[in-house]
Automatic annotation (TrEMBL):
It comes from Microlunatus parietis. Keywords: ATP-binding, Cell shape, Cell wall biogenesis/degradation, Cytoplasm, Ligase, Magnesium, Manganese, Metal-binding, Nucleotide-binding, Peptidoglycan synthesis. Mg(2+) 2 binds at residue 289. The keyword Cytoplasm applies. Transmembrane segments: none annotated. Mg(2+) 1 binds at residues 276, 289. Belongs to the D-alanine--D-alanine ligase family. One of its GO terms (biological process) is cell wall organization. This is D-alanine--D-alanine ligase.
Length: 330
């Protein structure tokens, strides 16, 4: 029996070449990316796959050229890894990769665009306004406060349109807090989004396609000790309590899964995504944002969801790499 399992394991390993786990980069989320990369690389090695860990540098193209049959597993967070540009390079080089293509990433990564697409499909989203830095600077904060208060209302959330890990995000309760929050958001990008603060239960729903179609994993409920799921709450061990499955009525959990699957399909995403939601007191899940390269660290929600689904992280990541390899051969 053991010999049979070993034989099956060898067959599964040989159907994918070297997996290049790409992590690091130069975004503000570099350290988080490196942590995600280490976790996935170790899990893939435990499955018997040959793994090379690589940063994004001037030698990357040559490195990939020297690895015929390789598959890239991108774990770059932030603009470099999630705006689609690097994935266009992989396609140009004819190198298969795990995850969504460049066009889908561009839409998903920009909160002002993704929210509009999701809202147009009839899903619940916050009321949102996108403000470029130039407009905010020329018109001035005071001229916009009144209009934003009327349109969005207080409290409101200010966040960069193109950033992750809650960097540059601020909850604003009064008009006096708005200018500083806008400046904080502009530190991470040229466009800030101002949106309604949605009170409720925060959950993250992972969608994974291991080759047989996308599946929503159990929702992870997020309870940060500080009350705000900011950068520190996300990546400091013990700073946030996670419940998986989320403490929600079954019909609400099912609705969260349906929303995440709809977002995944609507935006044309592939292999792996994580949709962040707030469940209002009336049980309606409200879309906040979606990640095409979600964190895989020891404090991230995706590994928790994979474990709750009864899957192994290593076998799941290996299946994703195999699916990418098959696409490359197809």
């Amino acid at each position: 029996m053991i010999m049979g399992n070993d034989h099956e394991r060898r067959d599964r390993v040989t159907d994918v070449g070297t997996v290049v786990v790409l992590a690091g980069g130069l975004s503000h989320e570099r350290e988080v990316s490196l942590r995600s990369g280490r976790q996935v690389a170790e899990a893939l090695r435990d499955e018997g796959l040959e793994v090379i860990e690589s940063d994004v540098d001037s030698g990357l193209v040559e490195r990939l050229d020297g690895l015929p049959g390789a598959v890239v597993f991108p774990l770059l967070h932030g603009e470099t890894g999630e705006d689609g540009a690097l994935r266009e390079v992989f396609r140009l080089l004819d190198v298969p990769f795990v995850g969504s293509d460049g066009a889908a990433c561009r839409v998903a990564f920009d909160k002002s665009i993704a929210t509009t697409v999701v809202a147009d499909a009839g899903l619940a989203t916050p009321e949102q306004v996108a403000l470029p830095h130039e407009i905010f600077r020329e018109l001035g904060a005071q001229a916009l406060v009144s209009a934003l208060a009327k349109r969005i209302g207080f409290p409101m959330m200010i966040k960069p349109s193109r950033s992750g890990s809650a960097l540059g995000c601020t909850k604003v309760a009064t008009p006096d807090e708005l200018p500083a929050a806008m400046v904080a958001a502009f530190a991470y990008g040229s466009v800030a989004v101002v949106e309604t603060f949605i009170a409720g239960t925060e959950v993250a729903v992972t969608v994974i396609d291991r080759g047989d179609g996308p599946v929503a994993l159990p929702a992870v409920e997020i309870r940060p000790d500080s009350g705000i799921y900011d950068y520190a709450a996300r990546y400091t061990a013990g700073a946030t309590r996670f419940l998986c499955p989320a403490d929600l009525p079954d019909p609400v959990s099912q609705r969260c899964s349906e929303v995440a699957l709809t977002v995944h399909r609507l935006l044309g995403l592939a292999d792996l995504s994580r949709t962040d939601l707030i469940v209002r007191p009336d049980g309606v899940p409200v879309f906040l944002e979606v990640s095409v390269a979600p964190g895989m660290t020891e404090t991230s929600s995706v590994p928790l969801a994979i474990e709750a689904a009864g899957w192994g992280i290593g076998e799941t990541c290996a299946d994703l790499a195999r699916a990418a390899a098959r696409r490359g051969r197809g």
